[in-house]
Amino acid sequence: MSKRNPHSFPVELSVVVPLLNEAESLPELTAWIRRVLKEHNLSYEIILIDDGSTDSSWDVIEDIADTEPYVRGIRFNRNYGKSAALDTGFKAARGRVVCTMDADLQDSPEELPELYRLITEEKYDLVSGWKKKRFDPLSKTIPTKLFNGVTRKLSGIELHDFNCGLKAYDNRVVKSIEVYGEMHRYIPVIAKWAGFRRIGEKVVQHQERKYGTTKFGLERFVYGFLDLLSITFVSRFRQRPMHFFGTMGTVSFLLGALITLWLVAQKIYLAAHDKAWLAAHGLRARDVTDQPLFFLALVAVIVGVQLFLTGFLAEMVTLTGRKKNPYLVRDTIN
Questions:
Q1: Sorting pLDDT into bands at 50, 70 and 90, what band is 283?
Q2: CA separation for the pair 62, 23 (Å, rounded)
Q3: Which tens digit of pLDDT belongs to each residue from 97-115?
C-alpha cells in the first residue's frame, strides 16, 4: 500500500467553515482557531464559505483576510445551502487533514488538534464529533435522536451524531466524494459507500449559541429522512440501476403474466368440464375480461415493462451523464 507524504501538502490542516449571517462570531472564531493551532505548531488555513449572507459577513471576512494570511474566503452569489458550501470548501482545501465546523461558536476549536491526531496517527478516514451533552431545546434534541437512530439502522454506521458539524477527514475522502442537496448530514454514509470504512467518533464539547439565531427549522428532519432514502438508493445502485429497476420489473411482469395465464386456464377448464352444469343452471363460464383481477394483472405487466425501460434509461444516463456544479461563486479571497 502506498504511503502519503505529509510534506506534499501546503498545510497540515484545513478548517472549512460554512456560514450564513454570522458576522458577529467570525472575528472571535478565527482568533480562537489561530490561538489553538499555533499552540500546537500546526500549519493551517481557514476557508470561510459565505453562503449568500445578507448581513455584513463578507465585509468581516475581507477585514480578517487583510490582516491574517491564513484566512481564505469564498462568497456565493446567493444561498445554496450547507451542502453546497461544504462541497466547495472541500474542493478548495489544501490540507493533509480537513476539518469542518460551524461558525456560530457552538463547536469548540479546542477539539481540532485531537481530531487531526486521530486522522494522522490513528489512521481514521473520517472522525465525527458527538455532542453528548447538548445545549439545545427539546424540540431539537428529541427529533435529532430519532433521526440518528434511523440513520444508524439503515447505514450500519455506529455513530451517535451524524449531523454534528465538527468532523475531520483525510484529504483523500473530501477529494473523492461529492456533497449536494442536503446530503451534508450523510457525509459518513457517502464516505462509507465510496470505500472509506475507517470511521470513528469523538465526544466533543458543545456550547450555547453566543450570537444570532439558528438557521435551521424542524423541516430539516423531514428533508433529512427523504435524503437518507435517496442516498441509500444512490449509494447502492448508482452504478447498476438495472439491478434495482430490473428486479422490480421482472417480479411485476411475471406476477401479472402468471395471473393472466391462470385466469385463461380457469376459463378453458370451466368451459370444457362444467359445460353441462353451467347450462343446467342457466350460467356460462365467466369471461376473463369480466374479472377485476385480470385488469390488476394487466397493470402489473405494464408496470413491469415500464420498470425495465426505466432501468435501461438509467443505465444509459449512468454511462453518459456528467453532473455539473451549479454553484455560482461571486468573490474569492486566496
A1: low
A2: 11
A3: 999 999 999 999 999 999 9
Residues 6+ apart with CB under 8 A from 324: none
Q: Rounded to whole angstroms, how far apart are CA atoms 207 and 230? A: 32
CA 60, CA 328: separation in Å to the nearest integer? 21
Query: Higher confidence at residue 256 or residue 224?
Result: 256
Cα–Cα distance, 209 to 1 (Å, whole number) = 44
Rounded Cα gap, residues 3 and 177, in angstroms: 21
The structure's pTM equals 0.72
**Alpha carbon 197 to its chain's center:** 16
| Average pLDDT over every residue of 190-205 | 91
Give the CA distances from residue 68 to residues 22, 46, 74, 139, 209, in Å, rounded to whole numbers and listed in that order.
18, 10, 15, 39, 25
329/92 Cα distance (integer angstroms): 12
Among 17-21, 74-78, 274-278, which stretch is predicted with the lowest mean pLDDT? 274-278
CB 45 within 8 A of CB 135: no
**In sequence order, which ranges of the chain are alpha helices (DSSP H)?**
26-39, 57-67, 82-92, 112-120, 138-155, 171-174, 187-193, 219-237, 241-273, 275-280, 292-320
Query: How many of the other CB atoms lie within 10 Å of CB of 162?
Result: 24
C-alpha cell at 151: 440513520
Sign for the CA dihedral angle at 104, 204, 229, 172 comes to positive
Tell whether the model's pLDDT for residue 23 goes beyond 70: yes
Residue-averaged pLDDT of the chain: 84
Residue-wise pLDDT for 59-78, tens only, equals 999 999 999 999 999 999 99
Contact 25, 298 (CB under 8 A): no
Residue 55 · residue 23 · CB < 8 Å: yes
